[in-house]
Amino acid sequence: METKDIVTLALAAYGSLLSSALAVIGWREKRRVLRVTASIGAPFPAPEVHFMFLIEVVNPGHRPVTINNVGLVLPNKKELVLIDSGPYLKLPRELKEGTSCSAMIPAKDILATLKEQGLNGTIFVHPYCRDALGKRHKGKRYEINVDLQL
């Protein structure tokens, strides 16, 4: 093989890798991405502490995404849809790139609903949200002790 053939082959390989990398980057920028997390805490300092269950949805992508509902995926694969998502989140809601929103529900209401579903002890749930196209965006699992007294 001659030097010019090796150079031509190297340039062709480089061009192919560059083209593939740009295609992947373009695809990642165009897709809808939502990050969903869950936590429990007391958001407001008050004489009486009221623990709240928080589901936060963040749009780190480059496209606006409309959220239709938020909830929890239970261990039995059922979905617990949060109908009343608190005063801070009115659904449906459009999240522009780089923005977020949160649903806050009294933790005692979530625990009571989980007990009604026959769940007890420590369980793992996944927070999720569903966009306007029906795609479910599921977050990392979150541990909840259903028997906790709040």
Question: Which descriptors apply to this entry?
Answer:
six-stranded antiparallel beta sheet, elongated, alpha+beta, 150 residues, Immunoglobulin-like, 35% strand, 2 domains, three-stranded antiparallel beta sheet
Report on the structure:
Strand 3 and strand 4 form a beta hairpin. This protein folds into two domains: 30 residues; 114 residues, Immunoglobulin-like (Sandwich), CATH 2.60.40. The strands form two sheets. Strands 3, 4, 5, 7, 8 and 9 form a six-stranded antiparallel beta sheet that branches. The chain is of the alpha+beta class and 150 residues long. The chain is elongated.
In short:
This protein has 2 helices and 9 strands. The protein has 150 residues and is α+β, with helices and mostly antiparallel strands.
Topology:
Blueprint: H1 3-30, E1 35-41, E2 52-58, E3 65-73, E4 79-81, E5 93-95, E6 100-106, H2 107-116, E7 122-131, E8 136-138, E9 142-145
Antiparallel strand pairs: 1-2, 2-6, 3-4, 3-5, 3-7, 7-8, 7-9
